[in-house]
Amino acid sequence: MIQQNATNADINRMSLLFRNAHAIAKAGRPFSDFPWLCTLDEKKGLSVGDSYRNEKKCSEFIESIAEEQRMQLRSVIQKAHYFSIMVDGTTDSSVTEAEIMYIRYAIDGMPYVRFLAYVNISRANASTITESIVKTLEQHLHLTKQVIFERLVGFGSDGAAVMTGCKSGVATVLKKEQPCLFTIHCMAHRLELSFKTFLDNFSFTKSLMECLEAIYKFYHNSSLNRSNLKVSCAAANITFLVPGRVGGTRWLPHTMAALQTLWKLYPALIEHFEQMSITTDASVSSDSKAKAKGFFKTLTTRKTVILASLLTDAIDVLHVLSLSLQHTYCSPGCIIDMLNVALLKLEQFKQRPGLYLQAALSETMSFMGVPISGTYNDDQLCTAIHHVVDGLVEQLQKRLLDGSSGNLTASMTFLVLKNWPEEHTQEFGNEAIHVLLRHFNPILHDSIMNSTRIPEEWSTLKEYVYKLKNGSKELTWVGVNEVAKDVCPNVLHFVDLLLSLPASSADCERGFSLTKFIKSDWRSKLLDKKVTNLMTVKLNSPEIDGFDPHQSIQLWLGIRKRRLSSSELPESDAESDSDDDTEALGDNPCSSSTAF
Known about the structure:
Blueprint: H1 8-27, H2 33-43, H3 55-80, E1 83-91, E2 97-107, E3 110-120, H4 126-141, H5 145-151, E4 152-157, H6 161-164, H7 170-177, E5 182-185, H8 187-201, H9 203-220, H10 223-235, H11 252-278, H12 286-299, H13 302-326, H14 332-348, H15 355-361, E6 366-367, E7 370-371, H16 378-401, H17 406-411, H18 430-440, H19 454-471, H20 477-484, H21 489-499, H22 506-518, H23 528-540, H24 550-559, E8 562-563, H25 571-577, E9 583-584
Parallel strand pairs: 1-4, 4-5, 8-9
Antiparallel strand pairs: 1-2, 2-3, 6-7
Helix pairs in contact: 1-2, 1-3, 1-23, 3-23, 3-24, 8-13, 8-16, 10-11, 11-12, 11-13, 13-14, 13-15, 13-16, 14-16, 19-21
């Protein structure tokens, strides 16, 4: 209940104000939008009152909404028992070191990932980052340091030395406090590194990617070149697209999108390069003409067309793997299954070319209607396919399977229910459960689960799973919990612990993309507390149409003594109250405040 003396009109006014503040955070708008949103509501005939219609109050309302979300998270974490932390660092628009933190947990077979905090730090070293992690968990989850390390089971990050260093990295420092901690170098990052190493090992693939990167810059840095490409696209009846970037820090899905754009634009690109290389137009520089001539020569050779098509097929497999590893709910148990599928698809290219290579091989003297020169015989093609496939397979196995957590990861494959054996066997999963129990047993509290009962319950759980598999094509751990939680509570608690372990830190990368939008150059003075509040509302709170402001209003009212209405106060008392800690929703003038 909101205060007993509050009228329906008071509650409605506050609800409108809180909804506006929530919408501003959800849409990533500045606090300065709040006053005119309230004015707009007023012009629509809605009563929002004259008080609190300023930027400072908007920030307060958003803080209350964010705090309500943190309160809900604390309650959920108590139920989840175990959790993991994912951390990544960057330098923000204020040229300050910052860490972004997410928390992962699982309840009744369903894993969840929630944004936790955005924290500016003085130095990006292991001790400072570790201290900020512990301090953030203490402040946001109201847990003591002892409880934190009793329940912290996983840590995910990128491969920066400060995070994963074997002597003094954050993971190593955390393991000193919690020896059972499962630490993982983001699998999506590992995949990117394996592909980069592959490119560096083979000169023809490296030079091809450098050529495509140069084409991107050719159009990215020149509006004239882009305009002329539009003309070529119109002449070839091709939808205009801007050539994408294939290098730099982009993920494999971005590289795949850039290659797809290349093939869609191929006839128009060739026509544009040819025209530029022979033009006498003085507006075209000699440097641009030389580049266009080089691009034309490279892209109209049969070797380039075939190798680029082969590489596109390979990247098509890898970009699907990358997206799967970046998925919020991907767990370590899924990694080996996803990797095996990708490796199988790559090996199949030795027997049957991919779709892009098939299209390139279907023509000999031309490609997409464009005449091409040179030859590329079957022996050369076979050698190239084996180089690409074997090189990628070697790097994927080396990067994604090796590591200190490799044995534990291999033991978690039973978490992928669809890959269970067709026939029920007594031995299935027994060794994996034994390995995992031996690692995590020191933190399995008797108050949460009886670890000695897990092996016995595992046999019972398998019977339930096989009964469910016979009647359901899409079996999940949520469904298993619904029917077997009362019979196998301990082993299912253990499954929740394993599902709470991260496979990547891609959520942190997505969080930084959002941070750049929130803490832009124009808002570089935003304090990390306000950035955390804005991101909490943006990422953790309900959508605009599902947001109920009443709990947040109640929380805001409880921060300081506030009166929702001053209509019954004498005029002199109402005036005096406007300057002290007691705030009224009556007729106080709307003050202006600058957003940080």
